[in-house]
């Protein structure tokens, strides 16, 4: 499960992030402002967003409300120190699916996350998807055009598939490394660049090396 945690309390954020990885086995990205929560959730698919109510640069309620206005359909859990009924109602009315009042036990948070994911918020991922005339086959991890099929390595496929799932959005190298290699992997941004270089050679074999576009100083994207 891929989780975005938005929490500005450094001690709590570090603890929750660590425990979600250790006890839940989840991949976690941790941001500290409402603005970053909105930007990350707008560019990358997460199974669940965990948003703290009170944060600088846009609080969790505002981020939740703005994401829902933009059509975001993923699961959202609100963390709040506010226990009044009207506050809980405000959080749910902003588009949150559930809330958890601080302080909380990590086991309860894990149970809430399991309940949310059982509701099947993840979008349907098609086995085959076409991008700029090239067919990407997720089952065989191949690309094909005009009958010519090229086998991708697992990492090449993961890079391409992540970009295709987020087409039209610029993904930073840091996000790509975290989503593909994992938060604790001993790799650098150069690993992404090297993998993209190999991927482009195979896209060149089907006549479309330009599918994966570089965004200088930021990362990569794929357009429709």
Any descriptors?
224 residues; alpha/beta; five-stranded parallel β-sheet; four-stranded antiparallel β-sheet; 23% strand; elongated
How many angstroms separate the termini? 27 Å
- In this structure, how is the largest beta sheet organized? 5 strands, parallel
Low-confidence blocks of residues: 120-124
Rg computed from alpha carbons, rounded to a whole number of angstroms: 19 Å
Per DSSP E runs of 2 or more residues, the count of β-strands stands at 12
Structural class: alpha/beta
Calculate the mean pLDDT score and round it: 85
Strand order of the largest sheet: 2-1-3-4-5
Spatial shape? elongated
Helix coverage percent: 40-55%
Roughly what fraction of the amino acids lie in strands?
A: 15-25%
Order of helices and strands: EHEHEHEHEHEEEEHEHHEE
Q: Counting H and I runs of at least 4 residues, what is the number of helices?
A: 8
Describe the structure.
The model is unreliable at 120-124 (pLDDT under 50). The chain starts with a strand and ends with a strand. The protein is elongated. Helix 2 (34-43) runs parallel beside helix 3 (60-69), helix 6 crosses helix 8 and helix 7 (173-180) packs across helix 8 (189-205). The strands form three sheets. Strands 2-1-3-4-5 form a five-stranded parallel beta sheet, with helices on both faces. Strands 6-7-8-9 form a four-stranded antiparallel beta sheet, covered by helices on one side. It has a three-stranded antiparallel beta sheet with strand order 10-12-11. Helix content is 42%, strand content 23%. It has helices at 10-24, 34-43, 60-69, 85-93, 106-117, 154-165, 173-180, 189-205; strands at 2-6, 27-31, 48-52, 75-80, 98-101, 128-131, 134-137, 142-145, 148-151, 171-172, 212-215, 219-222. The protein has eight helices and twelve strands. It is an alpha/beta fold.
């Amino acid at each position: 499960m891929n989780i975005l945690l938005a929490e500005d309390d450094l001690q709590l954020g570090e603890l929750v992030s660590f425990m979600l990885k250790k006890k839940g086995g989840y991949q976690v990205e941790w941001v500290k402002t409402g603005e970053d929560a909105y930007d990350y959730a707008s560019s990358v698919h997460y199974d669940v967003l965990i948003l703290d109510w009170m944060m600088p640069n846009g609080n969790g309620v505002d981020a939740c409300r703005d994401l829902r206005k933009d059509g975001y359909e993923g699961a959202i859990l609100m963390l709040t120190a506010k226990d009044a009924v009207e506050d809980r109602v405000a959080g749910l009315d902003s588009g949150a699916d559930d809330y958890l009042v601080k302080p909380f036990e990590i086991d309860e948070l894990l149970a809430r996350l399991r309940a949310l994911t059982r509701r099947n918020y993840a979008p349907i991922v098609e086995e085959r998807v076409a991008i700029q005339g090239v067919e990407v086959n997720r089952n065989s991890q191949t690309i094909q055009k005009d009958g010519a099929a090229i086998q991708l390595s697992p990492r090449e496929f993961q890079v391409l598939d992540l970009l295709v799932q987020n087409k039209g959005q610029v993904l930073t190298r840091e996000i790509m490394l975290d989503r593909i290699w994992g938060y604790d992997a001993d790799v650098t941004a150069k690993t992404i660049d090297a993998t993209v270089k190999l991927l482009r050679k195979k896209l060149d074999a089907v006549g479309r090396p330009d599918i994966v576009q570089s965004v200088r100083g930021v990362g990569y994207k794929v357009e429709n």
